[in-house]
Fold this sequence. Notes:
- The protein is α/β, with parallel strands linked by helices and 495 residues long.
- The two termini are 20 Å apart.
- It folds into 3 domains: 4-61 and 71-75 and 217-299 and 437-487, 3-Layer(bba) Sandwich (FAD/NAD(P)-binding domain), CATH 3.50.50; 104-210, no CATH class; 304-429, no CATH class.
- It is globular and about 65 Å long.
- The strands form 5 sheets. Strands 8-7-16-17-18-15-19 form a 7-stranded mixed sheet, with helices on both faces. Strands 10-2-1-14-20 form a 5-stranded parallel sheet, covered by helices on one side.
- The chain is 37% helix and 23% strand.
- The chain has helices at residues 12-23, 66-73, 105-115, 120-135, 147-164, 168-172, 178-186, 199-209, 219-233, 275-282, 290-298, 371-380, 382-404, 419-426, 440-443, 471-487, and strands spanning 4-8, 27-31, 43-46, 49-52, 58-59, 82-83, 87-92, 98-102, 213-216, 237-239, 244-250, 253-259, 262-265, 268-271, 304-312, 322-333, 338-347, 360-368, 411-417, 457-459.
- The structure holds flavin-adenine dinucleotide (FAD).
Amino acid sequence: xxxxxxxxxxxxxxxxxxxxxxxxxxxxxxxxxxxxxxxxxxxxxxxxxxxxxxxxxxxxxxxxxxxxxxxxxxxxxxxxxxxxxxxxxxxxxxxxxxxxxxxxxxxxxxxxxxxxxxxxxxxxxxxxxxxxxxxxxxxxxxxxxxxxxxxxxxxxxxxxxxxxxxxxxxxxxxxxxxxxxxxxxxxxxxxxxxxxxxxxxxxxxxxxxxxxxxxxxxxxxxxxxxxxxxxxxxxxxxxxxxxxxxxxxxxxxxxxxxxxxxxxxxxxxxxxxxxxxxxxxxxxxxxxxxxxxxxxxxxxxxxxxxxxxxxxxxxxxxxxxxxxxxxxxxxxxxxxxxxxxxxxxxxxxxxxxxxxxxxxxxxxxxxxxxxxxxxxxxxxxxxxxxxxxxxxxxxxxxxxxxxxxxxxxxxxxxxxxxxxxxxxxxxxxxxxxxxxxxxxxxxxxxxxxxxxxxxxxxxxxxxxxxxxxxxxxxxxxxxxxxxxxxxxxxxxxxx
Length: 495
Ligand SMILES: Cc1cc2nc3c(=O)[nH]c(=O)nc-3n(C[C@H](O)[C@H](O)[C@H](O)COP(=O)(O)OP(=O)(O)OC[C@H]3O[C@@H](n4cnc5c(N)ncnc54)[C@H](O)[C@@H]3O)c2cc1C
């Protein structure tokens, strides 16, 4: 009889692992507390507009990179148009200096020379790094490993060590140009510059230069739903509106889960839900690993978000899709603890499926570590919570009116999510949107998927993959399924 695998959480990681296990004949069930697949990889609809939460860039979005093969196996990219933009971001500071981050390295070099004529040495190192990463590939599957790839990997190692070990703040300060220095200090938002590794930028721009780090038309939810469809096609079952309370452990083995007071038994349990909840609630703090203890005690997470979605009754043709510009009047919120002086906004102007004809969906992100403020405000003063959401949306709209023009009068839908919303829908610790920040410390640590003293259990998700993101969901889900196949002496196959 097929062995039964119970997966907690139907986010990208749970879906990917589940799909590969279902392909290999496991009786695989996903228990998801929300009524949709995807977790944070999601969208929501309001009055004809679709607002996207997640995918700004999908590594391996187009052929030529090993990750693309994984997305293909998962059924996530077939028939889906990918937008591989020429411009990643248009940035502007308070003084009106602009910096366009082109995805073509040579264009980017010229743009950086314009801003930092005295910085040619570091600019050339930066561009050289991007070009190297554009040629580099991560072997997402064993089948894609080749002598050539291994050679490239060895070649890029010194860059890995150099940029991986350098905090983005330190990198920023290498520029004499105040504009470039400011940009790189600004890129990840609140207070993370001294710790966040520079490596992520090279991966992102490198894969963009290779035209394999795009946005999937239709957005994040469609991407997740496509994987869910592959999961179901292979016999997997998903139970929505099923919140798992506890993992049942007997004689040091995970043997089931408790959902809505009901006991469900299985041969393996995988938690692809929030890491803190898994260890401290579902496992009641009885099992952990010293590396997780350190991480939850000491590591920095990605922030949470106030997320403003706007439906606009106009088009934004022939314009970039992402902007970051200095606010004329910085926003002060969270009882004075958070000042926001930069507006980061995305226009879904290249994806007609996100808005009614002639209109545009847009989203603006405000990073915050003040999740408690939002949780408490919602609990203790609902009307002030609503008023604060409105005030922030009004601020974004006013700033966009000044920046774009012809904006305010075109707003016909406003939707504001807060850290409280993220916690409510996904349970993510502190409302973090992507788990652990890729710092020098976290990047050097391999968080285990197995916990000492607990058999037949795996923890898998953005909380076990520092830096989070979708690539480790696909690659790691495949690896995890291979590991379980090996234990069960099943030859791993992809259908
Ligand atoms: C704004 C934003 C932008 C991003 N941009 C990108 C990008 O451009 N590129 C990229 O690669 N990545 C991006 N990411 C990151 C990426 O989306 C995440 O790292 C990844 O989707 C996390 O997947 P996960 O399955 O680990 O977690 P989640 O998506 O949080 O899924 C966990 C699931 O578990 C469920 N769950 C929790 N508790 C329980 C319970 N008790 N019982 C049952 N179910 C439970 C939750 O409802 C959720 O569905 C972005 C994320 C956000 C939010």
